[in-house]
């Protein structure tokens, strides 16, 4: 630096680019920058659209695989049924499940199947469990007939505890209480017959086997005669748990009967014997 020359004078000299170097504005190419920004935004949009499209395809593929592809379809040979008996056929239960064959297990309603099976005469309860990837396991609790309706022609019609006709053909009715009626179909609209069926349906199988005769002149006078000579007047089907407890206690201790052969539990809290 020459003697006496200030810094600003030195910077303005030709050696440092001439006057105004520090205050010279920087020139920016705005159209070029705008073009670059647009390109970047376009790439970003395309990237987002591509990702969104891939997500949509993945979701649709997953839905198709789970609901419409063979991956989880119910197969007929993978349906199992247990718990049926002579009066509740395995075929009737399987037929209900077969209506869902070919559908994805995710779309099969287990509760819906259970409800349909529960409507079959003789079925107390049903449980349907899905067995992935293609199976369905059904367990049925089936009851024996509560009674057999014997009409004037000697024809037998087995019914469950709800008065529903059981569909077994030529099945043995040995050990099943018999109710004599004029017409089996019409008798199911008779309140006295329905009450008798409900009473019999609540009895233990061992006691049902002892029943030799059933009468019900009215809905409140259901009476059974047992093979060992005792007669039980049940009244109607209300409070059957208490009524059975009283009858069981007396029959297990015949000395309490004092020779009486008739037990009246129509009013179980005031049971009488004679």
Automatic annotation (TrEMBL):
Q: Which residues cross the membrane?
A: 46-67
- Keyword tags: Cell cycle, Cell division, Cell membrane, Membrane, Transmembrane, Transmembrane helix
**One of the protein's GO biological processes:** cell division
| Manganese keyword on record | no
Q: Where is the POTRA domain?
A: 77-141
Boundaries of every Cell division protein FtsQ/DivIB C-terminal domain copy? 147-252
From which domain of life does this come? Answer: Bacteria
- Classification via Pfam families: FtsQ_DivIB_C (PF03799), POTRA_1 (PF08478)
Protein name as annotated? Cell division protein FtsQ
Q: Which GO terms describe its cellular component?
A: plasma membrane
Coiled-coil stretches are none
């Amino acid at each position: 630096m020459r003697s006496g020359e200030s810094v600003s004078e030195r910077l303005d000299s030709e050696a440092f680019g001439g006057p105004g170097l520090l205050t010279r504005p920087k020139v920016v190419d705005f159209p070029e920058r705008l073009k670059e920004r647009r390109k970047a935004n376009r790439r970003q949009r395309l990237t987002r659209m591509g990702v969104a499209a891939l997500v949509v395809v993945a979701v649709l593929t997953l839905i198709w695989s789970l609901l419409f592809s063979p991956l989880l379809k119910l197969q007929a040979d993978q349906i199992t049924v247990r718990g049926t008996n002579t009066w509740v056929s395995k075929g009737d239960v399987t037929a209900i499940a077969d209506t869902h064959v070919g559908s994805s297990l995710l779309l099969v309603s287990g509760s819906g199947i259970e409800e349909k099976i529960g409507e079959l005469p003789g079925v107390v309860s049903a449980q349907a469990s899905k067995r992935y990837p293609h199976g369905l396991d059904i367990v049925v609790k089936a009851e024996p007939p509560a009674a057999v309706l014997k009409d004037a022609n000697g024809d037998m019609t087995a019914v469950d505890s709800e008065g529903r006709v059981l569909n077994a053909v030529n099945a043995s009715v040995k050990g099943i209480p018999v109710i004599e009626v004029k017409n089996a179909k019409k008798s199911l609209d008779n309140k006295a017959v329905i009450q008798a069926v409900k009473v019999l349906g609540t009895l233990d199988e061992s006691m049902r086997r002892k029943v030799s005769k059933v009468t019900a002149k009215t809905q409140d006078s259901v009476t059974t005669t047992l093979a060992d000579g005792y007669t039980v007047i049940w009244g109607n089907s209300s409070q059957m748990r208490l009524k059975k407890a009283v009858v069981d206690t007396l029959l297990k201790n015949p000395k309490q009967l004092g020779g009486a052969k008739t037990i009246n539990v129509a009013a179980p809290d005031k049971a009488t014997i004679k």
